[in-house]
Please model this.
Amino acid sequence: NGKVAFMPKPAVVDFKDFDVGKTYHRRFALTNVSLSFNSFKVLDLPDEYRDFFEISYVKPGRMSAGTSCYIDVTFKPQVNEDIFTEIPLLSQTGPCNVPITCTTKKVVPSTNLDHVDFKEVVMGELKTIHIVIKNDGALPCKYELFDPRTGLLVGSQAPYKTQHGPEGK
Model:
Protein backbone atom coordinates (compact mmCIF):
# COMPACT_ATOMS: atom_id res chain seq x y z
CA ASN A 1 0.00 0.00 0.00
CA GLY A 2 3.05 2.24 0.28
CA LYS A 3 2.29 5.81 1.29
CA VAL A 4 -1.34 5.58 2.46
CA ALA A 5 -1.36 5.06 6.23
CA PHE A 6 -5.12 5.05 6.86
CA MET A 7 -7.91 3.61 4.74
CA PRO A 8 -11.56 4.66 5.16
CA LYS A 9 -14.39 2.14 4.79
CA PRO A 10 -16.56 2.97 2.97
CA ALA A 11 -14.00 4.75 0.75
CA VAL A 12 -16.28 7.82 0.31
CA VAL A 13 -18.60 9.44 2.85
CA ASP A 14 -21.69 9.78 0.67
CA PHE A 15 -24.78 11.92 1.31
CA LYS A 16 -27.11 11.30 -1.64
CA ASP A 17 -30.38 13.14 -2.41
CA PHE A 18 -30.14 15.50 0.56
CA ASP A 19 -32.67 18.19 1.56
CA VAL A 20 -31.57 21.59 2.84
CA GLY A 21 -32.53 22.04 6.49
CA LYS A 22 -32.36 18.34 7.41
CA THR A 23 -29.54 16.67 9.34
CA TYR A 24 -27.75 13.55 8.11
CA HIS A 25 -25.28 11.18 9.82
CA ARG A 26 -22.73 8.79 8.38
CA ARG A 27 -20.12 6.67 10.13
CA PHE A 28 -16.99 5.24 8.60
CA ALA A 29 -14.17 3.07 9.86
CA LEU A 30 -10.62 4.37 9.57
CA THR A 31 -8.08 1.53 9.54
CA ASN A 32 -4.34 1.79 10.05
CA VAL A 33 -3.07 0.06 6.91
CA SER A 34 0.57 0.94 7.54
CA LEU A 35 2.88 -1.77 8.81
CA SER A 36 3.51 -0.16 12.20
CA PHE A 37 1.97 1.97 14.94
CA ASN A 38 0.49 5.19 13.60
CA SER A 39 -1.75 8.02 14.74
CA PHE A 40 -3.78 10.68 12.99
CA LYS A 41 -5.32 14.07 13.57
CA VAL A 42 -8.44 15.39 11.81
CA LEU A 43 -7.72 18.84 10.36
CA ASP A 44 -10.29 21.52 9.54
CA LEU A 45 -12.40 21.14 6.43
CA PRO A 46 -12.10 23.84 3.74
CA ASP A 47 -13.60 27.17 4.85
CA GLU A 48 -16.48 27.11 2.36
CA TYR A 49 -17.81 23.80 3.78
CA ARG A 50 -16.70 23.89 7.42
CA ASP A 51 -20.09 25.08 8.72
CA PHE A 52 -21.96 22.20 7.00
CA PHE A 53 -20.14 19.35 8.77
CA GLU A 54 -19.37 18.15 12.26
CA ILE A 55 -16.76 15.44 12.69
CA SER A 56 -16.67 13.46 15.95
CA TYR A 57 -14.73 10.44 17.15
CA VAL A 58 -13.02 9.03 20.22
CA LYS A 59 -9.35 9.84 19.77
CA PRO A 60 -7.61 6.46 19.58
CA GLY A 61 -4.05 7.68 20.14
CA ARG A 62 -1.41 5.38 18.69
CA MET A 63 -3.06 2.65 16.66
CA SER A 64 -1.32 -0.64 15.95
CA ALA A 65 -1.27 -1.93 12.37
CA GLY A 66 -4.63 -3.28 11.25
CA THR A 67 -6.73 -1.59 13.96
CA SER A 68 -9.67 0.70 13.21
CA CYS A 69 -11.58 3.51 14.82
CA TYR A 70 -14.97 4.94 13.90
CA ILE A 71 -15.54 8.52 12.79
CA ASP A 72 -19.00 10.10 12.72
CA VAL A 73 -19.86 12.80 10.20
CA THR A 74 -22.94 15.00 10.70
CA PHE A 75 -24.03 16.95 7.62
CA LYS A 76 -26.39 19.94 7.86
CA PRO A 77 -26.80 21.26 4.31
CA GLN A 78 -27.50 24.98 3.99
CA VAL A 79 -27.41 25.24 0.18
CA ASN A 80 -29.07 23.10 -2.48
CA GLU A 81 -25.81 22.43 -4.35
CA ASP A 82 -23.62 19.39 -4.88
CA ILE A 83 -20.62 19.38 -2.54
CA PHE A 84 -17.38 17.52 -3.20
CA THR A 85 -14.79 17.96 -0.47
CA GLU A 86 -12.50 15.95 1.80
CA ILE A 87 -11.83 15.40 5.48
CA PRO A 88 -8.12 16.18 5.76
CA LEU A 89 -6.14 13.87 8.04
CA LEU A 90 -2.56 14.25 9.14
CA SER A 91 -0.79 11.05 10.17
CA GLN A 92 2.76 10.43 11.34
CA THR A 93 3.62 9.28 7.83
CA GLY A 94 1.98 12.23 6.06
CA PRO A 95 -1.39 13.60 4.98
CA CYS A 96 -4.33 11.57 3.72
CA ASN A 97 -7.90 12.59 2.91
CA VAL A 98 -11.33 11.01 3.16
CA PRO A 99 -13.60 12.12 0.29
CA ILE A 100 -17.07 13.51 1.07
CA THR A 101 -19.69 13.56 -1.69
CA CYS A 102 -23.02 15.33 -1.15
CA THR A 103 -25.44 15.33 -4.05
CA THR A 104 -28.78 17.07 -4.46
CA LYS A 105 -31.90 15.35 -5.69
CA LYS A 106 -31.90 14.97 -9.46
CA VAL A 107 -34.02 13.75 -12.36
CA VAL A 108 -32.42 10.61 -13.85
CA PRO A 109 -34.54 9.59 -16.85
CA SER A 110 -33.93 6.41 -18.82
CA THR A 111 -35.71 4.29 -21.42
CA ASN A 112 -35.50 0.65 -22.43
CA LEU A 113 -34.98 1.69 -26.09
CA ASP A 114 -32.28 3.97 -27.49
CA HIS A 115 -34.34 4.74 -30.59
CA VAL A 116 -38.01 4.21 -31.49
CA ASP A 117 -38.23 3.08 -35.12
CA PHE A 118 -41.39 1.60 -36.61
CA LYS A 119 -39.49 0.53 -39.78
CA GLU A 120 -41.88 0.13 -42.72
CA VAL A 121 -45.58 0.46 -41.90
CA VAL A 122 -48.11 0.04 -44.71
CA MET A 123 -50.72 2.80 -44.87
CA GLY A 124 -53.81 1.74 -43.00
CA GLU A 125 -51.97 -0.78 -40.81
CA LEU A 126 -51.28 -0.28 -37.13
CA LYS A 127 -47.94 -1.05 -35.49
CA THR A 128 -47.22 -0.82 -31.77
CA ILE A 129 -43.90 -0.43 -30.00
CA HIS A 130 -43.71 -0.55 -26.23
CA ILE A 131 -41.29 1.83 -24.57
CA VAL A 132 -40.62 2.05 -20.84
CA ILE A 133 -39.68 5.48 -19.51
CA LYS A 134 -38.25 5.50 -15.98
CA ASN A 135 -36.96 8.08 -13.57
CA ASP A 136 -34.35 6.62 -11.21
CA GLY A 137 -33.72 10.01 -9.61
CA ALA A 138 -35.24 11.46 -6.46
CA LEU A 139 -36.92 14.43 -8.22
CA PRO A 140 -40.18 13.81 -10.07
CA CYS A 141 -40.45 14.86 -13.71
CA LYS A 142 -42.96 15.21 -16.50
CA TYR A 143 -42.26 14.53 -20.15
CA GLU A 144 -43.50 14.79 -23.73
CA LEU A 145 -42.43 12.73 -26.71
CA PHE A 146 -41.66 14.48 -29.99
CA ASP A 147 -40.91 13.21 -33.46
CA PRO A 148 -37.37 14.51 -34.07
CA ARG A 149 -38.06 14.91 -37.85
CA THR A 150 -41.32 16.86 -37.61
CA GLY A 151 -41.05 18.34 -34.11
CA LEU A 152 -44.66 17.26 -33.51
CA LEU A 153 -45.91 15.73 -30.28
CA VAL A 154 -46.43 11.96 -30.49
CA GLY A 155 -48.08 9.42 -28.24
CA SER A 156 -51.25 11.42 -27.60
CA GLN A 157 -53.14 8.11 -27.51
CA ALA A 158 -50.77 6.75 -24.84
CA PRO A 159 -52.46 5.76 -21.57
CA TYR A 160 -50.45 8.34 -19.58
CA LYS A 161 -50.93 12.10 -19.72
CA THR A 162 -47.65 13.54 -21.01
CA GLN A 163 -46.36 16.93 -19.96
CA HIS A 164 -43.46 19.11 -21.11
CA GLY A 165 -40.00 17.67 -20.42
CA PRO A 166 -36.98 16.28 -22.25
CA GLU A 167 -37.50 15.62 -25.96
CA GLY A 168 -37.52 12.06 -27.26
CA LYS A 169 -34.58 10.97 -29.37
About this structure: DSSP finds no helices and twelve strands in the chain. The mean pLDDT is 87. The CA atoms of residues 118 and 124 lie 14 Å apart. The longest strand covers residues 94-104.
